[in-house]
Specification:
Layout: E1 2-9, E2 15-22, E3 29-34, H1 44-54, E4 58-63, H2 80-97, E5 103-107, H3 109-117, E6 126-130, H4 139-142, H5 144-153, E7 155-160, E8 163-168, H6 169-175, H7 180-185, E9 190-195, H8 205-213, E10 218-222, H9 233-247, H10 252-255, E11 274-278, E12 286-290, E13 293-297, H11 311-334, E14 338-351, E15 364-376, H12 380-390, H13 394-399, H14 416-424
Parallel strand pairs: 3-4, 3-5, 5-6, 6-9, 9-10
Antiparallel strand pairs: 1-2, 2-4, 7-8, 11-12, 12-13, 14-15
């Protein structure tokens, strides 16, 4: 493992100080770590978890929010919304220099921040929170003694974790208008909630609220005996090992076809609906949501980055899957001893003049070569009949029929949560 100091612009334009922990060899994935309120990137929980994750091949970027640690800017001018914007800027940095993170990790208020930021990061596959509050108004408890002065005077000096910070009225107003429950319910990524049942800073009931608000796939892990800051090295290592094992299911190479992959934020898992959008992975990378299933698509190199099947690969996959399913249904209905089916397909282009049985005589034609392999104690007549049935699968018939494709422009309506964040000054 090795570590690099990095700098990138924050939401207010001032430089943010970060540290990128890299594993030996090519990273399996990149993660972004958000630290706790008034903490820094070097807090024990952040550094220990980041170091442990590199042992699992996961690179981790941790950084100081505006006005904290080694980052520039005035903490008094920041708020929760600006923290979320800092996270999005950190993602932009990784996207430009390496690749966008597929994993977001947040400790304490950082957990609330990554839950809010996820909707702005289409590449995110997994989000993990550690000792996170269910809503940002939890901070009001920390500021209770100074709240009246802040509201009356406009600002106050507040002692937090043995350090003094200037908190302004706009900070209170910002944390009181964050739709966290709605964001969690539309997270669009797998969620891991880790919390200590003896956490005296953020009670474990917050973990229940987060878990109940989220949709599946979601998991909860108890950090039994750990304090809020995970000051014991063993607690941080345990959290990192569980996180890495859980996140491995959602790493880039595991995403395609993963049964529990989640739909993008704001997209309902409607049966029969397929949604395709750019995923930011190279110039042609695409994120495909089919019902509740997530896939990637891309152009092969050198045109694209080959991060997923090409459009024609997906077309052949659809035909092959339909063929196999149709043969299985037919054999089952007939009671035939079909043990297994496999279908191999290849797409190519050919001159129409070279196809004696084709009606088109000029130009080029698409050719799909399909080979069906049947395993089982089938006689020749049964095999021949199944070969004929292959041409009756619905996708095969669609490819040979007249298809009416109607294309329209979507409306300019903005998702209500995104619109609300825009009004609050968050980037989209």
């Amino acid at each position: 493992m090795h570590s690099e100091k990095v700098t990138f612009p924050g939401s207010g334009g001032t430089p943010l100080a970060g540290r990128l922990d890299l594993p030996d060899g090519q990273p399996q994935a990149f993660a972004l770590f958000a630290h706790c309120f008034t903490c820094s990137k070097d807090v024990l929980a952040a550094s220990r978890i980041a170091n442990a994750l590199t042992d699992f091949g996961i690179a981790v970027l941790r950084f100081d929010f505006t006005g904290l640690g080694g980052s520039g800017g005035d903490f008094a001018n920041t708020n929760f919304t600006s923290n979320v914007a800092d996270l999005v800027n950190a993602v932009d940095y990784l996207r430009d220099t390496h690749t966008a993170p597929t994993i977001l990790i947040g400790h304490s208020l950082g957990g609330a921040a990554v839950l809010a930021a996820a909707q702005h990061i289409p590449e995110v596959r997994a989000v993990a929170t550690i000792g996170a509050p269910a809503d940002t108004e939890h901070l009001m408890q920390l500021l209770a003694e100074s709240r009246h002065e802040i509201e009356e005077v406009g600002e106050a000096e507040v002692c937090l974790a043995a350090r003094t910070f200037r908190i302004r009225r706009q900070f209170l107003e910002d944390i009181s208008h964050q739709p966290q429950t709605d964001r969690i319910s539309r997270l669009g990524a797998a969620l891991l909630v880790m919390h200590s049942p003896v956490d005296e800073t953020v009670g474990v009931d917050n973990a229940r609220s987060i878990f109940d608000a989220a949709r599946h796939p979601k998991s909860f892990v108890s950090l039994d005996g750990a304090d809020h800051l995970l000051t014991r090295a063993a607690d941080a290592r345990f959290a990192a090992s569980v996180l890495a094992a859980w996140a491995s299911r959602y790493l880039d190479e595991e995403v395609t076809g993963a049964p529990d992959a989640a739909a993008p934020a704001g997209v309902d898992a409607e049966q029969g609906l397929v949604v395709v959008s750019e995923n930011g992975r190279g110039p042609y990378g695409q994120r495909i949501t089919a019902g509740g299933h997530l896939l990637n698509a891309d152009e092969p190199t050198p045109v694209g980055h080959d991060t997923g099947p090409s459009p024609y690969d997906l077309l052949l996959a659809g035909l092959g899957a339909c063929t196999s399913m149709t043969l299985r249904m037919y054999a089952t209905r007939k009671g035939w001893p079909l043990e297994s089916v496999s279908v191999s397909l290849r797409h190519s282009r050919m001159h129409a003049a070279d196809c004696a049985e084709c009606e088109t005589r000029a130009g080029q034609l698409d050719r799909v070569e399909r080979t069906v392999r049947l395993t089982g104690d089938l006689d020749d007549e049964q095999r021949q009949r199944l070969l004929e049935i292959a041409d009756q699968c619905p996708v095969h018939r669609t490819l040979h029929s007249e298809v009416d494709v109607r294309t329209t422009l979507a409306s300019h309506d903005t998702h209500p949560d995104v619109a609300e964040d825009r009004a609050a000054g968050a980037p989209t």
